[in-house]
Every structure is written in C-alpha cells, then in structure tokens.
Write a sequence for this structure.
C-alpha cells in the first residue's frame, strides 16, 4: 500500500498525498536484456538488495527475452540497444505490439541520433551506460509507481501502445517549414513547440532522457528545444515522425484545436500566478500539458469519452468528477501516468495528476500546483460562462490554504486580458 509520493532521488520525500494506491502483494517482475553476460551479472549484483521487492529476470538476447515474456506478465523491461540479431529497438517494438502494458526502458551507451530515432517511438525511458544501481532502481520504482496509478488495466494497455500524442496538422507543418528555414532561430522553434501539448511532451521526454546527459531535468520547453537543436529536431521529424499529424479518432466535444488554445491560455496565466520565479517555466509547461490525458482518453474511450464530456457540460459537474464516476479514472491521472513513464520531471507529472483535485495533496511546496489549478479553473470558467468561485470549478479551501483566495479578483481580471489577447493571431 503506497500512501505517499517520493522524488526520483531515493530518500527525498517531496510531499504527502492523501490517496492510497494499492500495489498488491506480488513482486514486480523486471526483465533485463543484454547480450553481454557480464553486464547482466553486474546488474544482478548491483540490485541484489531489491530481490525481496522484485522478481528479476535476465535474458542475453531478444528471442530469449520474448520467451520470458511468454511465460508471464512483466512489469518493466530494461534492454540494451546494440545486440546481434534482434537489437533493442526491434525487441521493444515486439514488446510494444505484444505486451503493451509492459513499461519499456533502454539502457545503452550509444547516443547517436540514428539510435535515438529508432527507439524514441518504442521506449518510455532512456538510461545511459554505465548506470549506477541507485539510478536504475529509482527509475524502475518510479515507473512502477506510476503504473499503480492506473487502476483500469484496459486503459493501461492502450496507453502503453501510444508512442506519441496527436499533434495539430497546422502546427506540425509550421514546425517543418521553420526547421527548413536557415534563418529560423531556436527561440522561434520553441515558440512553435510551446503551442502544442503533444509536441511539448515529446520534446521534454527526449531532452530529459539520459541520452542527452542533462545534469538536471528541465521543465522548460525553451531550454529543451535549445538543447535538442534544430538538426536533431529535424532528424527526429524525418526519421520517425515523432510529431505526426492527428490521425486519431474524433470524439464529439473534444476539439484538439480548442484544447490547444485553452492550454496555452492556462499556461500563460499560470506563469504569472506562480509565486516562485524559479518555477515560472515549470508553471508554463504544466499549463501546456495539464490536459493531455483528455487526448489519450479520447483515443482509448472514443464514444464513451464523448458521453463523459457531454454529461459534464450539461450537468455543470467538474469533468474530473464525471470521469471518475463513469470510467474510473481522471484525465489528470492518465496524463500523469503518460508523463511519468516517459520520464518527465516528477513535479510536472504530479501537478498534472492533481490539478483538478489539489486538496488531495496536503504537504510540501504547493506553489506550482496552486498556480496551475487556479489558472485552469479561471480559464475554464471564462470559456464556459460560469463563476469560478461559485460553480464548483475551483477548490476554494485549497486556494485559501495556499494564500491565493484573496487574489482571486486580480487573477480573474488577468484571465479576461489573456483571453482578449488570444483573440488575435497565434
């Protein structure tokens, strides 16, 4: 039974969350794959303290790994990239297709662009060799923790098959044209990427992976794009269509364009609300991606999710309340699960998870969560014509506790100004 959440750094408690997530009494099954027996032996020794919590399996080839998977469910597979015969990319592609509920991690010492392009659509996370035991353990535990957020195995399985979220065609082609223009700067690229939640998530996933060797994870899309560089971005676009156009099912009441615009307004407002200036970029990014779970549920649930959206709209109930009652999970939890298994910063995923139900979190620094909750509620209320303070859109006790309730009129006025500005060209 998990009653709190922790940072990826072992031993550092971020905040207390008053939810109980049942992980079960069975051990997690973790499969390590590498063609070098010495590497597997080293991992076995490094992680020997985990044998009471994990059932660790080891395979020296892709076919041997598939045989292990056929014997029973595996929670996480950690595979080397370069192996003779079936390499890591080919193996993880098979795993994605046959066992989509299994989280997929690449452990490799090779960071060439072509290698990244081959695994980016099939790996949830990336680790570089040599990796110390603490890093491997923390990443696996965190991945399992986010898996536990998903009570619905069917949703977990479908989320596991997604290698990208739908991006808007107009933004996709604008980015392609921009990367082909030699006069386009990185700041121009960042502004395009920031306009689309799906692109923002994928760029952050790549740059926060161990392949790019950042000393510290970043919440900033601008810094992520700068670090990735135009050539890498172009290579990824051409090689694997990471930011492919929206080809998913169309759900009544769910407009990717409207969601993009609402997310951008929320991000702009959250950046102004957050009190700690060092969290400004994180607030903007969290605002951009806070509703990506709706895109996932739109693909997973299709017509059923359309019914959920319509019921929430007609009844005036908060969307998260209707989602939990009708499908057993909120779009915030789904979005957090996706961000978590993709390896984005923990604070970002946590904010997305609880942005609709912030009182669930009771301890720690609540500045970022409060800013995104307030911004999301004010924008949603303004767009729907509701009163954010009276119609159950905002968690008023939470805002009172975080000191934002007194500033509500100020931020309502700011919301009106941002919406007026948004009526112009993007």
């Amino acid at each position: 039974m998990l009653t709190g959440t922790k940072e990826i750094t072992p031993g550092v408690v971020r905040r207390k969350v008053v939810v109980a997530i049942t992980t079960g009494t069975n051990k997690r099954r973790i499969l390590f794959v590498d063609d070098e027996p010495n590497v597997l032996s080293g991992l076995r020794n490094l992680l020997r303290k985990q044998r009471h919590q994990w059932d660790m399996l080891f395979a020296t080839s892709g076919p041997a790994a598939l045989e292990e998977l056929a014997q029973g469910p595996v929670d996480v597979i950690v595979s080397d990239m370069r192996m003779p015969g079936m390499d890591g990319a080919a193996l993880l592609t098979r795993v994605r297709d046959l066992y989509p509920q299994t989280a997929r991690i690449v452990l490799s010492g090779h960071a060439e662009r072509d290698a990244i392009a081959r695994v980016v659509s099939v790996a949830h996370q990336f680790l570089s060799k040599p990796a110390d035991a603490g890093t491997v353990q923390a990443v696996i535990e965190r991945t399992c923790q986010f898996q536990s957020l998903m009570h619905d195995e069917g949703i977990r399985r479908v989320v596991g098959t997604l290698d990208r979220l739908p991006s808007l065609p107009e933004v996709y082609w604008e980015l392609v044209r921009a990367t082909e223009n030699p006069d386009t700067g990185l700041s121009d690229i960042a502004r395009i990427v920031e306009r689309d939640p799906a692109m923002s998530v994928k760029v952050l996933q790549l740059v926060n992976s161990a392949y790019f060797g950042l000393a510290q994870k970043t919440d900033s899309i601008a810094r992520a794009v700068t670090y990735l560089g135009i050539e890498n971005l172009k290579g990824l676009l051409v090689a694997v269509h990471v930011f492919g156009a929206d080809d998913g099912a169309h759900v009544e009441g769910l407009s990717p364009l409207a969601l993009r615009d609402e997310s951008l307004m929320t991000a702009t407002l959250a950046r102004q609300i957050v009190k700690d200036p060092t969290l400004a970029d994180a607030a903007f990014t969290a605002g951009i991606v806070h509703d990506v779970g709706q895109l996932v549920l739109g693909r997973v649930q299709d017509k059923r999710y359309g019914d959920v959206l319509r019921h929430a709209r007609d009844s005036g109930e908060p969307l998260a309340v209707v989602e939990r009652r009708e499908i057993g999970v909120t779009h915030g939890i789904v979005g957090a699960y996706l961000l978590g298994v993709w390896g984005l910063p923990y604070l970002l995923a946590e904010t997305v998870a609880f942005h609709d139900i912030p009182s669930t979190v009771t301890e720690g620094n609540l500045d970022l969560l409060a800013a995104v909750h307030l911004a999301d509620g004010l924008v949603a209320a303004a767009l729907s014509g509701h009163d954010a303070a009276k119609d159950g859109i905002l968690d008023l006790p939470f805002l009172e506790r975080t000191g934002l309730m007194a500033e509500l009129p100020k931020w309502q006025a700011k919301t009106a100004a941002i919406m007026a500005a948004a009526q112009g060209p993007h």
